[in-house]
Amino acid sequence: MLKIHENSTFHKKCYLSWIEAELRLKIGKTIDCQEQHLIRKETTRWNNVLSRLMHITLYLAENNMAFRGTSDKLYTPNNGKFLGLVQLLAKFDLVMQEHLRLAMKGDVSDHYCGKDIQNELIELMGEKVKSEIISRAKKSKYCSIIADCTSDISHVEQLSLTLRFVDLSDDNEKISVKEHFLEFIPVNESTGERLTEVIINVLNKYGLELNDCRGQGYDNGANMKGKNIGVQRRILDINPLAVYIPCGCHSYNLVLCDAAKSSVVSVTLFGVLQRLFTLFSDSVHRWKILTDHLGLYTIKKLSDTRWEARISSVKAVRYQISAIHDALITLAIETQKTDVQVSHEATTLVEQLKDFSFIVSLVVWYDILFQINIVSKSLQSTDMDLGKCTEMLKKCCHFLEDYRNTGFKSAILTAKELTAELEIEPVFQARRRIRHVKRQVGEIARDDPITSPEKKFEVEFFNCLLDTTINSVNERKTRPRQAL
């Protein structure tokens, strides 16, 4: 039956017509050749337009820049960086120039420059990047998870999830460790149980096995690092090989927070530094007086979480105390008649800077912050591993212990050099003794008070500060050692 059909006249005629149509399509000689040509031309034009829009989107995304402005229309003021780059490109590129001409005339139904296409392009690119990250993580097999919680501008608590793994995707033999942000996940509760559930659900969604997890990295919050019901404990119960390493930078912030609250002298020091910044930064004229006296460094605002700002502030006063002293004198004289309150504050700070105990505490704190800042910076480097981390923490502890034994004398010598610049006597002032209630018969007597102001300062400030810092560092350096 099939052979009869193949040999029929009707089949042969249809076959010849199909062959002829195929040849005509190849050489562009069909009856609708002009329409086909227009379709191909339009397809090419739209491909070129979308290619340019995608590269603009990629550029803005790579540089973490906002896309939209207050207007969503072309050639209107404040229409955002996306439309602005489209308009800029149209000045030099014929494809975009023609596209915008047609869009402004209304010859195209959609110019593909609106907010919807922007969001769609971002989403498509994001899914492509995410797919590549997951592919590499699966190829590597083993990975670590890094998570942190924070609230956004709309007060929605969000969990950020990052994967860390050995990247084996390159063709060469070079092995590299990569960290890739995965996504933000809105969470209603920040308890250890809920966050653990969210992390496991996200890993399951992307086909990543929790049993292949070999590390956890979180901050030092109780809901994350809690040894009984924290996230790290709950994940360890499921996978004992997922070793928990706390965030090094956050840990050292806590070390310095503990040290800053160890004595009244430390609290006073940072209070004075904040008062200096507030006094000069409240007025452009006052700031000008300060910068006219300062050289390389300028005072910084203190931060409760970013201790790098504190070392910058301490460093500026430590190395330019005489210049800041002169700036305060100038400010006090200039505002003596115009603003008595500012003049009084400047005069009070002058007296504070000339206090020898303040100068010694400034030197001591700079030495400690400088050493810890080196460790903190190193812990943030891309090539840091547990071996290097443990070694650096060990050296930091040795430095603090040696400084505990010999640092006070060297700080006194340095402080005396600064007092010479201020032309003051390097003498510890005796503090007024707090009056105690007289003890009754049978009560245990107090220890004899320390009468030497220098010895009292060493015991109550220097030793207390170093002991607190050493204990805090020792407590936090055990975690990497246990992981090894």
From TrEMBL:
InterPro entries named in the record: DUF4371, RNaseH-like_sf
Name of the protein: Zinc finger MYM-type protein 1-like isoform X3
Highest taxon above the source species: Eukaryota
Domain DUF4371: 52-227
